[in-house]
Every structure is written in structure tokens, then in C-alpha cells.
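Re: the 84-residue chain
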Amino acid sequence: MLETAEEMERFFVDLCTFQELKALEERWEVCQFLNSGQLSYREISEKTGVSTTTITRVARFLKDEPFKGYRCVLDKLERSNNDE
């Protein structure tokens, strides 16, 4: 139901603490690095400061878990970028 990036941002700022927002941002950054397939877990950790444990968790949800939330957003972004 949220229609703009601004609405989404306002919602998340109200919903989450600063640390929770930071964790979400870090996980999304890790997801994008993993999806590119260009960096090792160690390299992603060095670039982001995120632990390899978190990177492994994101990788598991990206590839193995049935929820496919990361994949859904990545695919939508890719389609959106191709349409531009």
C-alpha cells in the first residue's frame, strides 16, 4: 500500500530503532554483493564490516530458504532497471 520511497522510509523510521535500520541496511547490502557473485564472504565482510555469520545467514535465505523475500525484491529491481 505504500506508494513512494518516502512513505516507505517514514514507515521504517517509525517502526525500527536506529540499530535495527542499520542491520536491515547491512543485510540488504550483503544480499546485493552475494547476488553479484563477484566477492567472497571474507571480501564482503571487509567491505561492509558485517560478520561472516551474518553473511552466511543472508546467503542461506537468498538461496535455500523457501520464503524468497530477497529474491523477490532483487528480481523486481532488475526488471525495473531493464525497463528504464
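DSSP finds five helices and no strands in the chain.
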